[in-house]
Amino acid sequence: MSAPTRKRRWLTICAITATAGLIAIPASAAPGRHGSSPFGARTLDQLAAERTQSVGAMSPKVKEDDGDDGNEADEIAEGADQYAEARTSPGIVAPGAYGAAWTSLTKLAGTGGSWHNVTDLPYNSDDSRYRDIDSNSSGGSGNVTGRMAAVAADDGGYVYAGSAGGGVWRSRGGGGHWQPISDRLPSQSTGALALDGGGRLWLGTGEATTNADAYLGSGVYVLTDPHHGTFSTRSRVGGHELESTTVHELRFGGGKVWAATSEGVWSHSTKKLSGAWKLEYAPNPDYLPGGSKAGDPAAAYKNITNDIAIDPKNPSKVVLAVGWRSGDDYNGFYTKVNGAWTRITSGFGDLPTDADNVGSLTFARSADGSRYYAIDQSPEQLNTNPDSGLEGIFVSKSGSPSGPWTKIADYQGLAASGSALTSPGYMPGVQAWYNQFLSVDPADPEHVYAGLEEVYETKDGGTSWSTVGPYWNFGFSCWNIDPAKQTGDCNPTTHSDQHGVAIGRYHGKSFVYVGNDGGVYKRPVNGSQDSSGHATDWTSLNDGTIDTLQYYSVGVGKDLDHGGVSVTGGLQDNGQSVLRSNDKVMGSNFGGDGGDTLTDPADGCNIAEEYVYLSIQVTQNCAVNDGSWITDPSKATSYNVAPPDNATGEARFIAPLAADAKNSSTWIAGGRHVWVQTHGYAIRSGDEWKSVYDLGEGHTATAVAASGGKVYAAWCGPCNNQGFARGISVGNADGTGWHDIALPATGADGTVPNRYLSGFAIDPKNADHVYLTVNGFSRQWTEGPGAGVGHVFESKDGGTTWKDISKNLPDVPADSAVVTPNGGLAVGTDLGVVYRAPGRTSWQRVGSLPAVAVLQVKLSPDGRTLYAATHGRGIYTIKVRDCD
Q1: CA–CA distance, 748 with 754 (Å, rounded to integer)
Q2: Residue 816: closest CA among 855, 847, 868
Q3: Out of 29-43, 565-579, 604-618, least confident range
Q4: C-alpha to C-alpha distance for 226 and 408, rounded to whole angstroms
Q5: Would the pLDDT of 73 be above 70?
Q6: Closest CA to 589 of 564, 559, 620
Q7: Kindly report the CA angle at 653 between 648 and 658, in degrees rounded to 5?
């Protein structure tokens, strides 16, 4: 049986972007599109064809005079930029914004009650109940959680996993039964984890993948007793030097710890942890904070460093890998000559030294010092090669990072090693800027694990390779959708998109641990393979005790089959989760990236799930399916009902979707147009949407809401910091009465700021009484025109006039709001949830969530429970009465 033809697993991950704020790099002008939405197609081949079409369209160079973000060759980049735009536009966010907001938030008075995590149970991406047309069930990834950026392990069975946005976790039993150990830190974004020779655990905060939702960190921390302790702000190394940076790698040598960051390479003594970090090298120091060009739109790209290689025979010999993945003139390798950092221009052998071919790069050395290895991503390949951005994998057999280096793998060779990525336009290393790890078996210098989209292994120093962790099992002859089997006769694989790796021991046996967009997996270091070179012994360690799921949305409806409620939500690269009231394990009924969600309060199996760019799927049975649609298409249980803005590409990556609060059969969707359909969950075609208002060319909706037929729509355009503009339009669902609200372009004091408008909350008793949430940071932190002040605004006249009601609310991006049945207002922010009680003007902190973004808040069908969709720690609930 052939593989399903409609799969959609790789979205945000393939979108090439950069972020700023706790966010790594500010977004700016995105590349143009080629007429149709790149996400309308669902097969890997179609997506690959889109990429092939776009390659070479733009130069990869970042130049001082063009102020762009690297002009990514990939048209898909536009989508991922937008998470950053919401938080940075209209300008650039100054360092320290999130730290100040966290301090302010922790000083707020608290409400009563405690949060309850409802998603802290296994999430089975292969749940056999949900094998419908747009599910990835049977792909082989098994239990998953959110993206893991780094992994560390020791020889006593302790494993440490650092997540993208949900903090650091510890296992005492070789993986599984996890505990969070960084919840007291102001940043839950991990860049690097490393154990030093004394057994201390070092944490570099700030994820360095420069992807859609990577947040900046608050510095480097060390845990002296990682077996028992937890990180605290008192354990920070040095001063404030590495605040608001990302940390790509931490390396040790010569009594120093070295940090490759987004603001140069720094070093610090490993013995005396106080005192400032030393800036070892920054290619363009004028662009660093406090420098003469710190406000330049390209500043965040001008000092990116990737790794440090230290000669094991002479720790004074150090090689720095420096470079922005999309290309810049400073990209290359640097070493000290006569006491000054000097660019290496030759003598490396096969490993390129020119700026066009040195991008994101990772080093690894053998325990005996006889080998150094490297993975190199090429900006030129990224721009010109539709198949891959990988320059290659290399070895220095001298054991010195100075080489000479020999190429031991390229993308064609890896594709022929049992890879699932053999289609032109999408082959190994196509996302080498985002997916990279490298590790050498401590017991064998020629035994190497490499991670790109997949996991590769060589046991002979690179002469031959095996794809031990293929992207998925679709396309292999062993695959079958049979619900009685997880993935046919194929063995389980890892989730795709690799970021972290470690080798450790447990009960005397060595294991390799990999971290990726689906969590943490392990196998024996010398594990078994089948005839195709695929590992037969991967184990998912995502047992439900580690919840780092990255939700964009949440939906709640009654579970008519089992009582209670059904909870669903859209996730970064982990589709749509479904948790019914009697479940012990969550299932996934949609694959790819999950965006916004509508769930019928009266029936939780009536679900509308946004893919991206308003590609909406609807189901009326939770998408329960045994896979019979493969032979009989009429047995599909979900339907593509995307409005036309999906086909024209005139909607945001995560586009707004809402149901009328008084009539759940009336839906509002926002792209360039405000779309309305009145068939509810019985809709079966995108043709059933009607455009009731055109927001204007270049404008795209950022938020929509409706109650009793009255509709509010917020928009931006341009949405980046190159001429950012925003507005609000109001009208009726029947198409009448539409008009634009007059908002001062500069966001004058007391009016709605010129920043990203993220959400509406309508008073259930009066549709003219509405609240507005505003993202980004206020004027103190945002260096841009019209940034203004305030994050929550109120209108009592249908949006004609607005009043700032932020008062003591911390200056933090606000993402979503909901009016509680008692007339209170709950707001989800990038650092938790706040609440304003009815009749009050001041805000309280709701519970004690870690420093995690809450992208959406919603109420249960009876209005008694508040649900918070966090982007890094799953879905939480709290009783509304506890907020009083």
Answers
A1: 9
A2: 855
A3: 29-43
A4: 36
A5: no
A6: 620
A7: 90
Radius of gyration of the chain (CA): 25
Asked if residue 539 has pLDDT above 90, the reply is: yes
* Residue 26, pLDDT above cutoff 90: no
What is the pLDDT averaged over residues 217-242?
96
Mean pLDDT within 436-464 = 98
d(CA 403, CA 554): 51
Cα dihedral: 235, 240, 246, 252 (round 10): -60
Query: What is the rounded distance in angstroms from the CA atom of residue 496 to the CA atom of residue 470?
Result: 8
Query: Do β-strands 123-124 and 586-590 pair in parallel, antiparallel, or remain unpaired?
Result: parallel
d(CA 30, CA 110): 41
> pLDDT band for position 6 (50/70/90)?
very low
* Distances from the Cα of 349 to the Cα of 238, 403, 463, angstroms: 38, 7, 18
In single-letter form, the type of residue at position 270 comes to T
Q: Of 177-186, 462-471, 744-753, 783-792, where does mean pLDDT reach its minimum? A: 744-753
CA quadruple 788, 793, 796, 800: dihedral positive or negative? positive
CB atoms within 10 A of CB 234: 7
Could you please report the per-residue DSSP string of 818-875? EE-TTS-EEEEETTEEEEE-TT--S-EE-TT--S--EEEEEE-TTS-EEEEEEBSS-E
**What are the backbone dihedrals phi and psi of residue 100, each rounded to the nearest 5 degrees, phi first?**
-65, -40
Coil vs helix vs strand at 883: helix
Judge whether residue 189 has pLDDT over 80: yes
> Is the Cβ–Cβ distance between 554 and 594 less than 8 Å?
no
Tens-digit pLDDT profile for residues 611-661: 889 999 999 999 999 999 999 999 999 999 999 999 998 999 899 999 999
One-letter amino acid of 825: L
Fill in the DSSP letter of residue 338: T
CA dist., res. 280 & res. 268, Å (int): 10
Residue 144 CB-half CA count within 13 A: 33
The whole-angstrom separation of Cα 777 and Cα 787 is 8
Cα separation, 129 vs 181, in Å, equals 35
Do the strands 700-707 and 690-694 form a parallel or antiparallel pair, or are they unpaired?
unpaired
Residue 686 has pLDDT above 50, yes or no: yes
pTM (2 d.p.): 0.92
Cite the DSSP H helix spans in 465-582: none
| pLDDT above 70 coverage of the chain, percent | 90
**Buried b / exposed e across 622-653, counting CB within 10 Å, b at 16+?**
bbbbbbbbbeeeeebbbbbbbbbbbbbbbbbb
The three-class DSSP label of residue 127 is coil
